[in-house]
């Protein structure tokens, strides 16, 4: 079986197991806002939203072991040392690295595709921009935003560019442009979950157009819940240096995260305020979302997906109560 076929088979298995993982996202606020930021692994943003991926649970079995994909990635890297001008292989490496959660490698691979494609390959541009956001959430308001615009100029109907372009337009207060891009996205063949999310976002935009938009609010302005997070003393020795703490709000019945905040894991206890400013989609109101589940997870890999050995704790919470919440990290992901 060729290297391409191996990776294609792995992608197919991952798509079945993770609802087509597209757009993975991330981390903290930008990814949260971007969510936009889990299709192509796709579009880390688009698929993050549409996916039922359990961020706070071990990855489900797909029938093909992760090491197989890792091996395929290593073979692809060897191939690219011999054929560095192969833009399609650079893009394939970027997509594969995204599935593995290696966003730095994805960024570098898509960056090579972007450079070697002379900035004329829309898929390479979108992949490069997405992976930059996954590595550094602030990129959603920086160079990645400009890259999405560049991709739309080359391919106005690119679904991932339309999704991200709508997000960046929303964050800049251009609600009309955000609406235009998301309406166009509805003309594409989308997963039902994503189509529903788009319809909800467009309905909110229809109610806000003509008013002064403030798409990015401070945690204080947006309200939210104050969460005190403690670490079980028996697990203190298991927290590695440079670990990352993810604080996630999701519906009790599961589904994608509604809000995420990421920070360095340091002294304990730590107090976090999770608010609408941390929402995965613009316009999400945590206080109107009903009872939710709050998860605090320490990630050694510093990636948003849960991995074996991560430490976590969880508690039920309703943001409408505005009462403080407490979580003790006292469990280990199998």
Q: Would you give an account of this structure?
A:
It contains twelve helices and eight strands. The protein is α+β, with helices and mostly antiparallel strands and 334 residues long. It has two domains: 3-208, Tetratricopeptide repeat domain (Serine Threonine Protein Phosphatase 5, Tetratricopeptide repeat); 219-332, Sandwich (Immunoglobulin-like), CATH 2.60.40. The chain has a five-stranded antiparallel sheet. Strand 2 and strand 3 form a beta hairpin. Helix 4 (66-82) runs antiparallel to helix 5 (87-100) and helix 10 packs antiparallel against helix 11 (192-208). The chain is flat, with a radius of gyration of 19 Å.
CATH architecture of the largest domain: Alpha Horseshoe
Specify the structural class: alpha+beta
State the domain count.
Answer: 2
The strand order across the widest sheet is 3-2-5-6-8
How does the overall form come out from the CA principal axes? flat
Tally the helices: 12
Radius of gyration: 19 Å
Alpha carbon gap, first and last residue: 33 Å
Largest pleated sheet: 5 strands, antiparallel
Q: Percentage of helical residues?
A: 40-55%
Which stretches of 5+ consecutive residues score pLDDT under 50?
1-67, 210-223
How many β-strands, per DSSP? 8
CATH class of the largest domain: Mainly Alpha
Might you state the CATH topology name of the largest domain?
A: Serine Threonine Protein Phosphatase 5, Tetratricopeptide repeat
How much of the sequence lies in strands comes to 5-15%
What is the CATH H-level superfamily of the largest domain? Tetratricopeptide repeat domain
Note the run of SSEs as H and E.
HHHHHHHHHHHHEEEEEEEE
